[in-house]
Task: structure prediction
Amino acid sequence: MANVVVVGSQWGDEGKGKIVDWLSEQADVVVRFQGGHNAGHTLVIDGVSYKLSLLPSGVVRGKLSVIGNGVVVDPHALVAEMERLSAQGIDVTPDTLKIADNATLILSLHRELDALRESAASGTKIGTTKRGIGPAYEDKVGRRAIRVMDLANLKTLPAKIDRLLAHHNALRKGLGEPEVDPKALYDELASVADRVLPFMDTVWALLDKKRREGSRILFEGAQGALLDNDHGTYPFVTSSNTIAGQASTGSGLGPGAIDHVLGITKAYTTRVGEGPFPTEQINEIGEFLGTRGHEFGVVTGRKRRCGWFDAVLVRQTVSVSGINGIALTKLDVLDGLDEIKICVAYELDGERIEHLPASQGAQMRVKPIYETLPGWKESTQGARSWADLPAQAVKYVRHVEELIGAPVTLLSTSPERDDTILVQNPFQD
Ligand code: IMP
Result:
């Protein structure tokens, strides 16, 4: 029985929602292992659209869904998302959702700090989702976070709040912000405890048991490899590790349990927020891709930056994430273009290089070296077999495979789940 990790291979928004939904139907357990409600996954099932941010996609299919220890959980966002789903007829119960007792909580003070930093006149603006993700992870690493299990022991909570506020109130003073009252924070946490605790579980043990029973486990990544805190375009990244290795650390299931890594890859490139983007097209091509591809953020509604496919970046993420195959999405957005460019290498200070350097300055300076391929006039939308695709589109896909060093396992040709060309089922690795 294969267990599959799904990760984004670019800067997020690669169209993971549809693929994860298709796979979650075949899975027994669906696990989130990093990030929080900064993610935005849209699932379209029988024409109905479900927008998920924090909950694993499995909840929509009634599968056992798990929020692992690597996730940062905003209890208010959790409750609000469950209520939104309930209004759509999907009930999330303690039988279908388990939240790791050792997951870190996002508190209001994290959200405020995220927003304060982003709106400050000085300092590096990252363009975050302002959900408090970064500040919550900082507290986790700083060993002062409040975790899910702390809600179960309200007696020991005041001491934990004091430790946390010793840090935050000093910081807030420096920023000219009012201090947080420990009692107010205690009340905030006590008020959500009853809503969260029924879902709490020892997730690593649950997953170990499921694996031994032969369950199929799907690990659902959020964001993309280039937003990874170590391997992405630092500091313009998110605060978690987004690559496939995190599936293990962020859930407590050892890496030997992972059989297949599927990298979701868009046929062109987009990014939200600040930071380097070598193939960005601030011109009519970028507008064309953005309009055709409906490139607006699910979480923040922000317009996404758009550009040509960057094979250098995806080749790199195939390597760091250990991607076995890719699901190529949104090929139809390229329909009708006379010619299509693919970045195959960079020029840095007069030299040709084959990877994205780690330095921020060099990342800003690299210039893409393109190959130009002829486009196609026919529509690829809704294609369900290779024979439905124009010859030039097949050539484009084959060239992408060659350049990134990974095969196309799945090709998605519209948001509808059946509009998919399946080469290999990742669960049958
Ligand atoms: P944060 O995760 O809110 O701290 O934001 C850090 C960076 O990651 C910003 O550039 C965000 O736009 C980006 N980001 C976070 N979540 C997503 C996502 O789900 N899709 C695309 N970009 C994201």
Summary: The pocket of inosinic acid is lined by residues 11-13, 38-40, 126-129, 131, 133-134, 222-223, 227, 236, 238-239, 272-273 (CB under 6 Å).
